[in-house]
Amino acid sequence: MGVGSFFTSKLDEAIGWGRKYSIFQYPFVTACCGMEYMATACSHYDVDRFGAGLPRFSPRQADVLFVVGTISHKMAPVLKRIYDQMCEPKWVVAFGVCTCTGGFYNNYATVQGIDTIIPVDVYIPGCPPRPESVIDGLMKLQEKIATGAQRY
Amino acid sequence: MDGQAILARLETRLGARLLGTHDHRGDHTAIVAREGIIEALTFSRDESDLRFNVLMDLTAVDYLKLPGREDGPRFDVVYHLYSIPHNHRIRLKVPVEQDDPVVPTATSLWPIANWLEREVWDMFGIRFAGHPDLRRLLMYEEFEGHPLRKDYPIERRQPLIGPKV
User: Fold this and answer.
1) Cβ A108–B156 below 8 Å, yes or no?
2) How many angstroms separate the CA atoms of B138 and B115, rounded?
3) Is the pLDDT of residue B96 over 50?
4) Which of A73, A106, A107 sits opposite B161 (nearest CB)?
5) What is the pTM of this model?
6) How confident is the model at residue A149 (pLDDT cuts 50, 70, 90)?
7) Which residues of chain A does B125 touch, with a Cβ-Cβ cutoff of 8 Å?
8) Which CATH class for the A3-147 domain?
């Protein structure tokens, strides 16, 4: 034990610190929340300050799946497949009430929360959420990435 | 051609199979029995002074529990026709009973009827006899029920997608 475990735990911390500032996100944008996502990503709010400024449009190159907008039943298998294609370690952010719970679309066509299909790490409510909420969610995700903590 | 004149032409052709007509702010509607709908559509499309060459829309209405129509047929299948050469329109309606929701297909008259009839089957559960490929159009195969029927429960959850209640 002793020396080895000490070294391992410090290595985990270093890796966590590195990962939380190099978030390659996959924006799965399906609806109006995408506008707010773009506002967050642009220079005024500037998510690049948090190391999340580079969206990757291939799930194989991404760490965090941003699910932005309403997910319909017919989109559900696509979302599941995108999630399955991402390499570990991976995280999922539910952006907006539609992805969190279905929002006000309580009907035959809309998935009632994407956590019925894939695991979610951070929920950002709002219709759509303000960029401040998104940045708050992103910082919570960073905390989680750094410490390996359970979901919020 | 004037809407009233179109209705008169349909009436002479269909006779008793024309169940009624009405107009509202210049939009004319003919209510046709199921037995006469294919003849009415063919006649409207091919007659030289009618020439309804565009099927603008084919849809349905569920009149379940509509005040004043509790005893009547539950559904109406609605055809909106438009004529490009004559620039006139007509609407045809076919009343359909709940126990026997079948209407003859119009796919041989207008190819677009193929998808429109599939949508009506998907949403209302009305079948079209003679349709070449009557599958669901918008929903998926495992979907249970027909969501635009008035008795489809709004909070119903589908078996493939939860949450399980």
Assistant:
1) yes
2) 10
3) yes
4) A73
5) 0.80
6) low
7) none
8) alpha beta
Residue A7 has pLDDT above 60, yes or no: no
For residue range A82-118, list pLDDT tens digits in order: 999 998 888 999 999 999 998 888 888 899 889 888 9
Task: For residue B55, give the amino acid letter.
Answer: L
Flag if A108 and B147 touch (Cβ within 8 Å). Answer: yes
Give domain limits for chain A: 3-147
- Whole-number Cα distances in Å, B89 to A52, A61, B49, B137: 56, 55, 12, 27
Q: Where are the beta strands (DSSP E) in A9-63?
A: 24-29, 54-55
Residue A113 touches chain B, beta carbons under 8 Å: yes
Res. A11: pLDDT tops 80: no
**CA distance, residue B69 to nearest chain A CA (Å):** 27
Q: Chain-centre distance of CA A120, in angstroms?
A: 8
Beta-carbon contacts of B104 under 8 Å, excluding residues fewer than 6 positions away, are: B34, B37, B38, B128, B129, B130
Condensed to tens digits (0 to 9), the pLDDT of residues B129-138 reads 999 999 999 9
Pick the CATH number of B3-129 from 2.30.30.240, 3.30.460.80, 1.10.3720.10, 2.40.50.100: 3.30.460.80
Best probe of the B interface among A72, A107, A108, A115, by most B CBs < 10 A, is A108
Q: What is the mean pLDDT of residues B30-47?
A: 94
Query: In terms of CA atoms, which chain A residue is nearest residue B147?
Result: A108
Distance CA A37, CA A96 (A): 10
Q: Is B165 on the interface with A (CB under 8 A)?
A: no
A117, closest residue in chain B (CA to CA)? B161
Q: Would you call B160 and A73 a contact, using CB atoms and an 8 Å cutoff?
A: yes
